[in-house]
Design goal:
Distance between the termini: 46 Å
Strand order of the largest sheet: 3-2-1-4-5-7-11
Protein name: Fatty acyl-CoA reductase
Number of helices: 18
Strand content: 5-15%
Shape: globular
Number of strands: 13
Radius of gyration: 24 Å
Family: Belongs to the fatty acyl-CoA reductase family.
InterPro entries: FAR, FAR_C, FAR_NAD-bd, NAD(P)-bd_dom_sf
Largest sheet: 7 strands, parallel
GO biological process, one term: lipid metabolic process
Catalytic activity: a long-chain fatty acyl-CoA + 2 NADPH + 2 H(+) = a long-chain primary fatty alcohol + 2 NADP(+) + CoA
Helix content: 40-55%
Length: about 500
Amino acid sequence: MYDSMDAARISGYFKRKSILITGSTGFLGKILVEKILRVQPDASKIYLLVRGADASSAQQRVQEEVINTELFGLLMEKHGNGFQQLIQEKVVAVAGDIIYENLGLEAPVLKALAEEMDVIVNIAATTNFYERYDVSLDVNVMGVKHLCQFAKQCPRLKMFMHVSTAYVCGDVRSREVLILEKPIESGESLREGRYLDIDAELRLIKEAKKELQNSPVDEAACKTERKAMKELGLQRARHFGWPNTYVFTKAMGEMLLGQLRGAMPMVIVRPSIITSVRADPLPGWMQGVRTIDTLIIGYAKQNLSCFLGDLSVVVDVIPGDMVVNAMMAAVAAHSEEKGQAVVPVYHVTSSLRNPATYEVLYESGRRHFYKNPRVGENGEVIPTKEMRFFPTIARLRLYLMLTFKLPLEILHLVNLLLCGLFSRLYNDLNRKYKFVMHLLDVYGPFAFFNGCFDDINMERLRQAMAMKTPEDHMFNFDPKTIDWDDYFTRIHIPGVLKYLHK
């Protein structure tokens, strides 16, 4: 596989390479694009597949949503007046979409792209836990299939990297378990005796949509279809043992890769919860609210009095720049390994080597807000309050019922007595209550996740890294080097407040 790795080998690998990246407008995709450009300006081309009506609109999206972000400030400073020239020479926006065969590209464009490609990195995904089943399958499963079919048309291809999630392992609340870095087998289900047939799931969706579309097409019908597709996703995920539509379809995507890869050089990367940039290019930078950030934002606003979770439970988090460093090292390490008996899987996680608990996160937050109290519109200091944590979903449900549902039912009774005077207020509050209870159902399993991610493959790659120079440390992906208390207090929480808390 590899004897030794260092910055020179990793950055040198991307020299004169053409790289196709999907999901570049997302958090991880942006970090990868910036890193490649910064450490290897002699890369041949970086092709970014983005949705757009044409090449011009795709280019505009890349410029506005990727290049113009604060993340590229260090690269801009490094190249000065030559920055835009670098971007024009190296970054190519491609108007397409992985949900379509041939990536939605015309045959000549597809052929030209295939002939030039050395590396494909698939980051594109819909990460919504409660996504429509048809949408989630289109992106997380069929998107993988279409990219894999394209990859087989690339004569120069040296690596196909697929970014999945560590949580394809499913719900392990009931037991402490070491989750191994192993591929998902074809037809594998987390419920004994059930065989997961992807084609059957596609047929199921087709039939369900056919039944729903028998009614007249109007706003109500669209809303009904949307809800039915979301419920179908959760139902099918739980039928096979996964807690939500996102991790279920990501597992199917991995399964499909195993079926289609042939002799293609391939690596699967499974990060856990990805958090803000820790070191470079911009500490604290992030995009998109993660589960743990809901806690931080709610605490900052002081409108979150309670939270679901056991403070002693380990929350497996890993900074985004470390994930990208690991990805680049793995690409360089496994390039051109054709005909692998088993696809290498990498858990980019922290729970085994350097676990962080919810308590560390909470205490870091308290300390941050005591030192940096929020100030209201009138200039008065907003006092920092303690938050109540519930160690079980049942206890939180009971608390919410007594605190909110009971007064809500009293309001309902008063509303009936007053001939609907408070109907709008009651309906609004009742809708919000139902939404909170739904969130408990969907996100609850992650609050009590007891699994520990084995990372023996990742550790072997880390041990091969020669950390002798400052450049080598730019590719650090060792969670043991993280002081979680310092990271949360000094970097992540300020980052959440700056970039996410509007």
